[in-house]
Design goal:
Blueprint (H helix, E strand, L loop, with lengths): L3 E3 L7 E3 H24 L8 H14 L4 E4 L3 E7 L7 E7 L27 H17 L7 E7 L8 H7 L8 E12 L3 E3 L2 E4 L3 E8 L3 E2 L9 H19 L6 E9 L6 E2 L2 E10 L2 H21 L3 E8 L4 E3 L1 H15 L4 E3 L10 H6 L2 E9 L20 H17 L3
Parallel strand pairs: 5-6, 5-7, 7-18, 8-17
Antiparallel strand pairs: 1-2, 3-4, 4-6, 8-18, 9-16, 10-14, 10-15, 11-13, 12-14
Length: about 400
């Protein structure tokens, strides 16, 4: 059954699902062009100058919207409907790329900047929001309230572009925030939602263990930082396994260890780098204290000294339950309930979490997988790509969610 949104001010004015779907389908060829242009010209976090300029040109010249810069390379614009002060829905897209060499598999739109790649789908996020802006701008006389378009920089790098945008006032007039992210594990034409806790906080851990180097045949004359590091890594895992609430996942991973000795050389220091992630802010702070205390005790007991530095990153992401349930209901109507999937907790992190800490927010997943197009490769991988047909659903559903939320009192 076709659902129609009736405006509170004028019940004779309506926006129906079919109209949005038709507009999204018609936009697809143009969206593919835009996405490929952005993909070919990726920019690292907080360096999105060309991308921001592209977004500004489109919003200003194609849609006639006024834009404003926040956080240097962030772009914000507002679409005002009838009675614009009644409610404001924020729609967010991130624009930065990653320092990855893209696979050379013959794709026509491969990155022109060697060593920089849109390997997390932010090109698709930006394109989808431009498409949604186009649709919503055409319908602005048929809804009441405001849509605030938020194109943010630096999602991939601390302190996170979202935190900077918030500091500069992006949320000052936003009542709810909605964002989407590509998901290569979900097929095109499907989306995923999870109310409540969804993504983890993330902290970076930098450790330097100082010992006393020497000959490998005479370890009694050294303070071996390799042996100390091995003991420390194993011991630190006990903090998670023996202290964390088992109902809320925590992850402690060391992905880098440098000890520049040799087969018969004990180095004088070892460097460790890792990440700690959790879904509990109280436990997060407690775990930091426990790690520092344990590291100091173990290293000093073995004759060394340690510098243990924790760089606090993004908070956990909680999807507001009432808002997300409304979005699920709207997605069921737009996509069909068989194409709306539940999501599990994901221990990756996202700076959209900053928005979720401040205003009711919903962050959902857009399916981009196609077996025939080989687009099931994970994000942050040199071979990552999207099924560009997903852009039609990306812009259409985002528009439908925004309109439904404006219509909710």
């Amino acid at each position: 059954m076709q659902r129609t949104l009736y405006l509170r001010e004028n019940p004779n004015t309506m926006v129906n699902k079919a109209a949005i779907q038709e507009k999204a389908k018609a936009l697809l060829p143009r969206l593919i062009e835009i996405r490929r242009l952005i993909h070919e010209n990726p920019e690292l976090s907080f360096q999105e100058h060309e991308t921001a300029a592209l977004v500004e040109r489109y919003l200003q010249q194609s849609l006639g919207l006024k834009t404003e810069r926040l956080a240097n390379t962030g772009v914000v614009a507002t679409i005002e409907g009838r009675n614009p002060n009644s409610k404001t829905v924020g729609l967010r897209a991130d624009m930065d790329a990653l320092p990855i060499v893209e696979v050379n598999d013959g794709r026509a739109y491969r990155s022109k900047k060697e060593g920089i790649m849109h390997a997390c789908g932010h090109d698709a996020h930006t394109t989808s929001l431009l498409g949604a802006a186009t649709i919503l701008n055409e319908l602005k006389d048929q809804f009441q309230g405001r849509i605030k378009l938020v194109f943010q920089p630096g999602e991939e790098k601390l302190p996170g572009g979202a935190s900077l945008m918030i500091k500069e006032g992006v949320l000052s007039d936003i009542d709810v925030m909605i964002g989407q992210h590509v998901m290569p594990a979900i097929y095109t034409g499907k989306v995923g939602f999870r109310p409540g806790l969804y993504m983890a906080s993330t902290d970076e851990i930098y450790v330097k263990i100082h010992g006393k180097g020497g000959h490998g045949a005479m370890p009694h004359l050294t303070v071996d930082p390799i042996a100390i590091a091995a003991n420390l890594i194993v011991a630190l895992q006990q903090i998670v396994s023996r202290n964390a609430n088992p109902t809320l996942p925590s992850v402690l991973t060391f992905g880098k260890i440098i000890g520049n000795g040799a087969t018969n050389v004990i180095p004088s220091e070892v460097i460790l780098e890792g990440t700690f992630r959790t879904l509990d802010e109280t436990w997060r702070t407690s775990a930091h204290e426990k790690m520092v205390t344990m590291a100091k005790g173990i290293v000093e007991s073995m004759g060394g000294t340690v510098d243990f530095n924790i760089v606090r990153g993004y908070p956990f992401l909680r999807n507001n339950e009432p808002l997300t349930e409304r979005c699920i209901s709207s997605a069921n109507e737009y996509m069909g309930s068989e194409n709306v999937e539940p999501l599990g907790i994901w221990m990756a992190a996202e700076d959209f979490s900053y928005y979720s800490q401040e205003v009711p927010s919903c962050f959902y997943r857009l399916g981009t997988k196609s077996d025939s197009k080989n687009t099931g490769i994970s994000v942050h991988n040199a071979g990552f790509d999207i099924d560009e047909d997903a852009l039609e659903f990306g812009c259409g559903l985002l528009s439908w969610l925004a309109l439904n939320e404006l219509n909710h009192q």
